[in-house]
User: What shape does this take?
Amino acid sequence: MQAAQMFSFGAPDVLRVTEVGRPSPGPGEVLVAVGASSVNGHDTLIRAGALTIASGRRFPIGTGLDFAGVVAETGPGVDLRAGLPVWGLVHPRGRHAVAGAAEYVVVPANRVGALPGGLSMVDAAALVVPGITALAALGPATRLARGESVLVRGAAGGVGTAVTQLARAMGGTVTALARSSQREFLTGLGAARVLDYHEVTPAELDAFDVIVDTVGTELGAYRRRLAKGGRMVTVALSGPAIAAIAASAVYGPRRIRAFSANPLTPELDELARYVAAGSVRPVVDQVFPLADIAAAHHAFARRGVQGRQVVTVTAD
Assistant: This one.
């Protein structure tokens, strides 16, 4: 089978599509014939060598945190039928020679959920990680309550679009930070107000009950825009961001929080319910064939992206 792998760390061009053996599921595992995967920030950090604590340094290393596909085979003890459309994730801290961007992937059965009805493989791959991240950011990380104000930084990106929609569905009033050219797009996703981050500084903003950051810069300045009892979370981890998170610990409940979403079937099923209700929909920026995995990673790094870069995969 074909799988996207890297044999060194570096820029997107280190990614290659290679021929590897098709895996077999063991006890409690499923083999998924992958229809599509998307490019996530986690994937780019692994590729750049910035998450060796997760990936290790032994090559080859696979790419693709998420996947949408069909159950091809099950191991002992798994109560899922072959042919069931599913979506899911590989373990974000696992060391994967083959991951979601491959014709087949083996994962524990509790890391997949039934694909929401009406979603194509491309749409499902575009939504699974952003949707799960948004659920964690607005749920356990900040506990958004109905009627609270929410600021979303990087609102037009993959995670930002999901946070904007889910915050609105949970009863929040959303202010989106993005480019002015994305105003109509984000208003259509549920933002009550869209501000151009080129034109407004953090000090000029209102106070917010919840701030969700997907950018990872100026975190201290944005934290100061928290209302009394406000909560802030960032999903963009870098050296400076980690330093800002650590420094904010002195502010107790109003510190900057970070998390790593590691969903199992119940979380995937919860996201599926929001999809079924029409509260959250996928946003696809571009679609690439597996052979163009490097181009998909290049596209992820562009400014002004709206939504997700998706890689389509065809399993025999």
Summary: Residues 2-119+282-312 form a domain with the Quinone Oxidoreductase; Chain A, domain 1 fold (CATH 3.90.180.10). The chain has nine helices and 16 strands.
